[in-house]
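Before the break, one more example. Copy the sequence into your notebook; we will annotate it together after we see the structure.
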Amino acid sequence: MQDKHKDGGMGNGEVVISVRGLYKSFEDIPVLEGVDLDVYNSENVVVLGRSGSGKSVLIKIIAGLLKPDAGVVKVMGEQVDKLKKKELRQLRLKIGFLFQGSALYDSMTVKENIEFSMVRHFKNMAASEVSKAIAEILDSLGLEHTENKMPSELSGGQKKRVGIARTLILHPEIMLYDEPTGGLDPVTSVEINELINEVQKKYNTTSIIITHDLTCAKTTGDRVLMLHDGKFIRQGSFEEVFDSNDERVKSFYDYNFIQ
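Here is what the structure looks like once it is written out:
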């Protein structure tokens, strides 16, 4: 398992995402209970936790897909739940969201999937420019020669890459990854982890990576936070988080590596 080392780990110190006192319940079942989080410019932050721990709910609130019950969530200085529809659309243009299942349209080719995303946001772009941009992004992500393939013809790893390509072509400043290695074999998972790091370096993105995969966390995270019962119970480097006698932490580590 390759470790990730970066100088500083907090970009230039500018807070891009700020969460304070975040609460969220569904049908009186608490999911998030007073979460605080700062994510700094150009930083990869990993949020670890078991299924159902509230990880995905957290990033959906950050992206404005869900409203909090209480608390303040600011993205690039904007309080997300106070934005009007038009303002929220403008903010979302700066946020790339890679869903767990890649969320590709099955009836569209790879090129059409990416084109659909572009045409919605760059209405005045010439068709030749669109085609050139798509070819360049696919080539940069190792997806050359896939333009005319259907999602059903792609491997799991290729689908993830197309999902990332469809997001990156909009030049987002923030990337939200929901279980990026979920359902992938170990070799493909390593490739996706490396790609997340490449995206950070090449596009200078600020990212939150939601995962229960410790290899992903160790490889991609500048900082790791563990979510348990709706609260962050540990944060720091991967080693700092797991240098603990806390049974909640040890059992999570064992669950990943001793099976």
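Residues 1-94+174-183+211-259 form a domain with the Rossmann fold fold (CATH 3.40.50.300). The chain has a mean pLDDT of 89. Try to locate both features in your own notes.
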